[in-house]
Amino acid sequence: MKRRHALLGLAALVLSGCATQGGYTPAYLNGTVSLAGGPLERAGSMVRVTLLDVSHSDAPPRVLAEQYLEQPPAFPAGFSLCYDRHAIQADGRYVVEARVFVDGELRLASREPRRVLDGSSATVEISAEPVAR
Asked: From which residue to which does the signal peptide run (predicted)?
């Protein structure tokens, strides 16, 4: 029992240390995904919206946040990406992209990743267009 209390105390100490040193601070990026190219069958549909750090051209993009919307009730479909405010640098480049799947198959995607977190609007509108099959 003493060991359990000691471990709980140690865990609390570690977590409080993280909080005082600028730990995770949530921030939100909200927006909508609309469909270009007509209606989409809702059954079996899933939208994946991703916030990426593309600051370094010599490295692959880093995923900062991701949300899955299963069978959204309507389009445009709203999303809210929760990311760590401390991960955002003033000189960084950040984009949002969307992909729409039906029964696991990619059907639509944003053609150009949408630049965000650069002082422009806090609400993002993304258009997903049909992909070649």
From this structure: 1-21
Written as six digits, the tokens of 43 are: 């059954």
Cα–Cα distance, 65 to 80 (Å, whole number): 10
The residue type of 54 is V
Please list the residues that pair with 106 across neighbouring strands.
101
Of the candidates 122, 101, 118, 10, which has an alpha carbon nearest to the alpha carbon of residue 49?
101
Per the structure block, which two tokens stand in for 76?
Answer: 């445009």
Contact 29, 96 (CB under 8 A): yes
Stated length of the chain: 133
Are 108 and 33 within 8 A, CB to CB?
A: no
Maximum Cα interatomic distance, the chain, rounded to a whole number of Å: 64
Peptide bond before 76: cis, by omega within 30 degrees of 0?
yes
Token pair recorded at residue 57: 């051209």
pTM of the model as a whole: 0.78
List, in order of start, the domains of the chain with CATH numbers.
26-130 (2.60.40.2990)
